[in-house]
Specification:
heterodimer, A: about 400 residues, alpha+beta, two-stranded antiparallel sheet, elongated, B: about 400 residues, 2 domains, 10-stranded mixed beta sheet, two-stranded antiparallel ribbon, 14 strands, about 20% strand
């Protein structure tokens, strides 16, 4: 590429313009990356499939707010294919106040069986035994520990709403999940049973670890059939399907985000195309001179396309780089905003970075296309006569 | 002495392609901003218009919503004999004991979402003036019958008139379709409260809705309720209960402003490029204007006006695109989850004149910031150098 220096000189001929154009590519690209990672976070791979975990969740068929009798857990445990069974109750309540920052998931659980079902979680500090032995102890996700700056032994006070009681917990252990956010707090359901006798006998969801994939499918149907005509019919689905249920509750958010992304790509395209049109027009006479010197129209086409491509690539690389580097501080600064839930789920997914690169290349090629064709097709005489 | 506006307008039309691309760019940015804001506005409206100012909602103390509240049966007589409650012609207090159950139902478009099933007493509909039965009839107590709001009926499976909603051993017949003029009941299914209590084996109601006589009665009732040691309950005006849930729209609003702002800076750069090109192509012309006696100031103003005009065209186009999108593509009702109650809230996109105005202001800001630097450059063109310049 002996013309590379020429193309490069052309890119930086008008520095202000180049900087502005690169800037106007970087900013929308950042938005695209953010939205793309949001969509990727929604479509996170099924933990049951990727790690051979085979977990299924049973809940009341009517909906999450209707509890099941606690005896169901024991009945399910006796079925063939169920390795471990544990019980979850959504405690809700509030920590300090109702703000979005102080919201996180809190569950009353069965400690001993919880660790059997979620055997992919690792205890990073404290110990599971400490937690088992302290009825008022809690197991907290690593993300929460970081967010609130908690330590082992700290007290956490939760004011109940569904369960009208205030509970005081001591952090005994910290857990971490491999590829998922670790941002929930778990405590012993016996504590809740003691302070609130009316709570006894109810369970929100029952989580089952199955022997293998086949057992998971078979068990899900078997459980639902077993309870079909009882006063508490159940619905059992894979962990992934259960989580996707929450995503589908968001409604058409996915569609909205996708269409916004497409519009933003269009916007960058317009801005970049505008720049290319401007710089090609200013050089009509110069290009005519190049043609007289023997440059073929094909070569002119390559020169201008190369210029727009390089311009876009510079913007793209800076933009993607800024996204990767700036993600951590950005996440931290978004933590106190209404979209903190979304912010904690984003990370630089490879597919998003690839998408960003493809969009960059596309913008580079498409924005230069029209000016390049026009410049290479214009008759030389007309070009030389052109008054800028 | 000011440079005539015509000069700027003509300049914009001389460079049709560049002007067109920039206007379209700004227009799209404004349209994106407007559609997100109209979503947030539509969602907010549901909570703003819901509830009647005379109604008081009784919940358990510390409860955030009806879903996590509970009121025992034996507490009801204590509540409804408190002072301040309005009465009907026969002298009976106006109240409705209600049970809220969340149903996980299948959407027509696939996937599931939570819908509020509300058990109400006889006076329940009367306490909600926007309620109107549109088709069919009211449910009869004790027959496992429900009435469904028109929006829910359109969006969820098995919710049309005469369908049966089934969950294992539970089933309810849809006997009526109702309309609540865009208020909260439009996202609900209603049934008889006593039937629902026994169906779901509940020992406590979720809430009690009470109509008070007037402002004075309201205060009387609230004070009496919170001072009664036998009741660990709280009373909220129905209006403020719903207004608090407008926080559901906060993430969308924040997202809209966040994305809008970043995109606006991007569009600003685009406008700046266009204006710089416009200035550099006209260097000689500007010098000539200066020679003719136009001051720095009038040239600066003139170019800023040109940039504002450019952006305004974009803003108007954006409003037009936004209106078109909301009226055509987003005209139906849509739903999302209200995380206060963990159930579906149905709403329609709303593009109000106020939002459109914000869009125009938004575009003018893009124009202003995009125009300042190029206009300054134009205003301080070195006359001699510029006149001597060969293209």
């Amino acid at each position: 590429m002996k013309f590379f220096p020429l193309i490069f000189k052309n890119v930086f001929r008008k520095k202000t313009r180049t900087v502005l154009t690169i800037g106007s590519i970087i900013l929308p690209l950042l938005v695209i990356c953010l939205m793309g990672s949001f969509l990727s976070a929604l479509n996170m791979p099924d933990p049951a499939q990727t790690r051979g975990m085979f977990r299924i969740v049973t809940r009341h068929k009517v909906g999450l707010a209707s509890p099941l009798p606690v005896s169901y857990a024991e009945k399910i445990r006796q079925l063939d294919g169920a390795i471990a069974v544990t019980k979850f109750n959504w405690f809700g309540g509030k920590y300090i106040d109702d703000s979005a920052r102080n919201f996180f998931a809190r569950f009353a659980v069965d400690p001993e069986t919880l660790v059997l079902v979620f055997d992919d979680a690792t205890i990073t500090s404290g110990s599971a035994n400490d937690w088992f032995n302290d009825r008022a102890g809690s197991l907290v996700g690593e993300d929460l520990i970081k967010k609130f700056g908690w330590n082992i032994g700290d007290q956490v006070v939760l004011i109940g709403d569904i369960y009208p009681t205030t509970i005081q917990l001591t952090i005994r252990a910290v857990y971490k999940l491999q590829n998922e956010p670790s941002d929930a707090l778990f405590f012993n359901r016996k504590y809740l049973e003691e302070v609130l006798p009316s709570f006894q006998g109810n369970v929100g969801t029952i989580w089952i670890k199955c022997r293998d994939g086949a057992a998971a499918t078979k068990l899900a149907d078997e459980i639902d059939q077993m309870f079909e005509n009882s006063p508490y019919p159940t619905k059992t689905e894979s962990e992934k399907a259960f989580q996707m249920g929450f995503v589908s509750m968001l409604g058409n958010v996915k569609l909205l985000v996708t269409s916004l992304t497409i519009i933003i790509v269009l916007v960058i395209l317009l801005i970049a195309a505008n720049t290319m049109a401007l710089s090609a027009r200013e050089r009509v006479r110069e290009i005519a001179v190049l043609r007289t010197l023997g440059f073929s129209s094909w070569k002119i086409l390559t020169l201008i396309l190369g210029e727009s491509l390089i311009l876009a690539l510079i913007g793209g690389i800076i933009g993607l780089g800024a996204f990767i580097i700036g993600l951590k501080p950005l996440k931290a600064s978004l933590m106190n905003t209404p979209i903190s839930g979304f912010a904690s789920a984003i990370k630089p997914f490879p597919e998003v970075l690839l998408l960003g690169l493809i969009i960059t290349l596309l913008v580079g090629l498409l924005s230069g296309l029209a000016p390049a064709i026009r410049a290479s097709q214009r008759p030389i005489t007309e070009g030389l006569r052109h008054v800028g | 002495m000011a440079i005539p506006l015509k000069y700027n307008i003509r300049n914009l039309f001389v460079r049709k392609v560049t002007t067109g691309l920039t206007v379209l760019g700004i227009g799209l940015v404004v349209a994106v901003f407007l559609s997100v804001m109209s979503l947030s506005e539509g969602l907010t409206r549901v909570f703003k218009v819901s509830g009647s100012p005379k109604n008081i909602l009784v919940l358990r103390r510390n409860s955030q919503s009806e879903v996590d509240s509970g009121i025992y049966r034996e507490q009801i007589p204590l509540i409804v004999t408190l002072p301040g409650i309005d009465r009907d012609i026969d002298g009976n207090p106006l109240f409705s004991t209600e049970l809220v159950v969340i149903l996980n139902m299948e959407k027509n478009e696939g996937g599931t979402s939570n819908v509020t099933l509300r058990g109400i007493s006889e006076k329940g509909p009367h306490l909600r003036p926007q309620f109107k039965l549109a088709e069919g009839r009211m449910f009869k107590p004790g027959l496992s019958e429900v009435i469904v709001s028109r929006s829910i009926s359109k969006r969820f499976k098995n919710c049309s008139l005469d369908d049966i909603i089934r969950f294992g051993s539970y089933q309810w017949k849809v006997v009526g379709i109702f309309d609540a003029d865009g208020t909260a009941p439009d996202s609900e299914i209603w049934t008889d409260v006593e039937g629902a209590m026994s169906d779901f084996r509940r020992v406590s109601y979720s809430s009690v809705l009470v109509r008070t006589t007037d402002k004075l009665g309201q205060d009387q009732f609230v004070t009496a309720l919170s001072n009664d040691p036998r009741l660990a309950l709280q009373a909220k005006s129905e209006r403020s209960y719903y207004e608090k849930q407008t926080s559901t729209a906060d993430p969308i609003k924040f997202f809209g402003i966040f994305v809008g702002l970043i995109m606006a800076i991007g569009a600003c750069f685009g406008a700046m490029n266009t204006m710089y090109a416009a200035v550099s192509a006209r260097t000689k012309e500007i010098a000539t204007l200066r020679v003719l006696g136009f001051s720095h100031m009038s040239i600066l103003t003139s170019f800023i006006i040109e940039s504002l005009l450019l952006a305004l065209l974009g803003g108007v186009l954006g409003c037009f695109l936004g209106l078109l999108t909301v009226k055509l593509a987003l005209s139906g009702v849509t739903g999302t989850t209200n995380f206060n109650t963990f159930s579906e809230v149905v709403f329609a996109f709303r593009l109000t004149p106020n939002i459109l105005l914000t869009g125009i202001v938004f575009s003018l800001l893009i124009g202003l910031f995009g125009g300042i630097l190029p206009a300054t450059q134009a205003a301080f063109t070195k006359i001699i150098l510029a006149l001597r310049q060969v293209e």
